[in-house]
Design goal:
By secondary structure, the chain is α/β, with parallel strands linked by helices. The chain contains eight helices and eleven strands. It is globular and about 55 Å long.
Amino acid sequence: MTGVVAAKVPAVTMPRSNDRPAKISFRNITKEFVSKARGTSTKALNGLSLDIAEKDFVCLIGPSGCGKSTLLNLIGGFEHATSGDVLLDGVRVTAPGPDRGVVFQEGALFPWLNVLDNVCFGPRRLGLPRERYLEEAHAILEEVGLLPFARHLPAELSGGMRQRVAIARALINHPPVLLMDEPFAALDPQTRVLMQEMLLRIWEHDNRTVLFITHDVEEALFLGTRVVVMSSRPGRILKDVRAELPRPRDFSVFGHPEFVKVKAELFALVREQTIAAAADASGNAGTVRTP
């Protein structure tokens, strides 16, 4: 898809993913969740393989329960695969680390700390010099438009502002990988678009690697360099679409005929898998008794 954004917006040329080394690799991943109390096991992922190149912005979409968040938790080091390898720069992931910043659907801010102290929490724990991280925290808060609110508590902020604090808190540690699990899902449509545009500006500035989970096909196509569609449980990769839209992008791209066409194709695929997931759930598919 080319020529989607009006000519007045200059295109940003990025090397294609297959010209760059893999930053994240999922190799033949299977993940089962076992309930000893109920004597059951549920297979969330089955034989899934996916490479994400350095500087890619990959959006994962698919029906609820297909394993999107499970994949994010595997590369985050919060979960471990039942079988297969999860690699970061070719090294097996075994635990969380500062090289992966995480932003969840809820900001998960410390309610007793103000905005500035929430952002500075990571560098402070690492024992970095206060002068150094304070200066950087102020710069990041200015970038996300929250410097005037540095002394406010999270309860005094809107939902969108709290998510900006969460993003700033992840960015201050300079993680080469940013993992985002539906960070804008709870926001109203207008705030959501503003947050999407802010995230794109930040990514276009530093080009870190992003893995972004969403249920919103339009959001995925707007943000991503790639949109990866997962099947109903147990999750596997159904389609990997390269979103070759000129950058920088803004909201005007939503109405372009080609954008609308591809969005409809992706939506139809996700809808098909959502129907399959509902049928599986009604028949208790994917859950078996353990010995």
